[in-house]
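Input record, target 12 of the design panel.
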């Protein structure tokens, strides 16, 4: 029998995705039923004022367990993680947070017989030896970053818990996520967020990737939609569990800049590739997400044109109001 999600804990709730997922889940499941948590003591105003917030260090299982007991948690969206660029600067921290944090969440899921654990993965799982165009669901996983290594291990670990303990653990491989609400937290695809902010504020942007670097991207509303859709899908329809490919659009910085110039004609872009270029070159350019479409009816709502129009409109309003 399918277990319902009633009391939800979100780790990493202050992050780019966590901050918006928290608000979306509170709107759908009730603010009092969605507990936001993060290692930082000062959450964004919207999170602090809309529902419960707790300080949690995912590397310390007891801090998570206290909230599970306090709120009778039956579902965890585990988003706390060190991302790719930050992970390369401190690989040991990346491993500790990403792997030990995941292990702690999974063990609590088993111990308290939780309805569901959602642990996102990433396009960083790929590296050498895979087709970079239309990368298939089933493929070689040989990442070149510590972040990617932890995401591959995390996928395997989640599937292990599914088969060994019967834990309903699900995950999806996020592409680069673009948001008008929250700045990114140290990823290789961050340029695609920064470029909009700089275009609105300064009319120019110095890109840390080459102009021809094609990467898969997704607008935040679709990211939130995909995460919740997967969480709510009937487990009996799922052939995969922790490694769903999801896709929306793919583009390079030149194409993105050209789309921005339709709204801000004076916008200019320059290129100064750094260490993140090597990471980007190891990732797919586009992704085959047919398994997600077949197993839980995944379908994005935004493309590059509609996303850019929405981003420029929202960020311009913020800039004029002195908020960015």
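The sequence produced for target 12 reads:
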């Amino acid at each position: 029998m399918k277990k319902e999600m009633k009391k939800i804990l979100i780790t990493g709730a202050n992050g780019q995705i966590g901050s918006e997922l928290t608000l979306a889940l509170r709107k759908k499941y009730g603010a009092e039923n969605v507990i936001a948590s993060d290692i930082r003591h000062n959450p964004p105003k919207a999170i602090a004022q809309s529902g419960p917030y707790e300080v949690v260090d995912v590397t310390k299982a007891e801090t998570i367990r206290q909230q599970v007991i306090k709120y009778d948690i039956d579902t965890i969206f585990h988003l706390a993680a060190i991302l790719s660029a930050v992970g390369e600067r401190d690989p040991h921290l990346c491993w500790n947070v990403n792997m030990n944090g995941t292990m702690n969440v999974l063990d609590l899921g088993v111990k308290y017989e939780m309805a569901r654990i959602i642990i996102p993965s990433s396009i960083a799982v790929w590296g050498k030896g895979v087709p970079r165009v239309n990368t298939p669901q089933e493929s070689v996983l040989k990442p070149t970053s510590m972040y990617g290594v932890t995401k591959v291990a995390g996928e395997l670990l989640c599937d292990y818990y599914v088969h060994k303990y019967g834990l309903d653990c699900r995950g999806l491989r996020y592409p680069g996520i673009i948001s008008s609400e929250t700045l990114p937290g140290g990823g290789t695809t961050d340029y695609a967020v920064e470029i909009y902010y700089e275009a609105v504020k300064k009319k120019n942007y110095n890109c840390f990737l080459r102009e021809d670097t094609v990467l898969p991207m997704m607008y935040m509303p679709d990211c939130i939609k995909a995460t919740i859709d997967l969480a709510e899908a009937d487990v009996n329809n799922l052939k995969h569990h922790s490694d769903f490919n999801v896709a929306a659009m793919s583009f390079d910085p030149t194409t993105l800049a050209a789309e921005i110039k339709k709204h801000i004609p004076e916008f200019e872009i320059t290129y100064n590739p750094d260490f993140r270029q090597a990471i980007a070159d190891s990732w797919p350019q586009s992704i085959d997400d047919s398994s997600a479409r077949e197993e839980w009816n995944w379908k994005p709502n935004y493309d590059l044109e509609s996303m850019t129009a929405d981003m420029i409109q929202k960020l311009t309003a913020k800039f004029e109001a002195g908020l960015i």
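The chain has two domains: 8-176+219-245, 177-217+249-283+301-320.
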